[in-house]
Design goal:
three-stranded antiparallel sheet, single chain, Immunoglobulin-like, alpha+beta
């Protein structure tokens, strides 16, 4: 016949689980209240940086990172790459606060030989 757990063991395990659950709840509640009271409402701050330039068939691809350093979400972000008179665009549907997305644009001229400008052109509120 199998031995049953003593009645003293079960309540201790139940108490430990209950305390852990309550601790997780209190921490999550504190994070939510802190975020709500902080008043962090800085607009989207989209920053771009080039990660890599590589030759492809018919031109070059400029791979980049777009990062939203602001406290609000940006939607429909247009990223523009300008190289002399040449212009290429990329679009991100959604860029949450304090996050980043990767993308690329295609150019026919070598960006390493010219003055490449990469910038965010605009966004919409989601």
């Amino acid at each position: 016949m199998a031995k049953r757990a003593s009645s003293a063991d079960a309540p201790l395990l139940e108490w430990a689980t209950g305390v852990l659950g309550a601790l997780v709840f209190v921490v999550m509640l504190g994070v939510c209240v802190s975020a709500g009271l902080s008043g962090a409402d800085a607009p989207p701050d989209v920053r771009t940086r080039v990660e890599r330039i590589a030759p492809v068939h018919g031109g070059y691809v400029v791979e980049f990172v777009a990062e939203n350093a602001g406290d609000q979400t940006a939607a429909d972000i247009d990223i523009i790459a300008e190289l002399g008179a040449e212009e290429a665009r990329a679009r991100f549907d959604y860029l949450p606060p304090h996050s980043q997305r990767r993308g690329g644009v295609f150019l026919s001229s070598d960006p390493r030989a010219g003055d490449l400008t990469l910038r965010a052109d605009g966004y919409a509120d989601p």
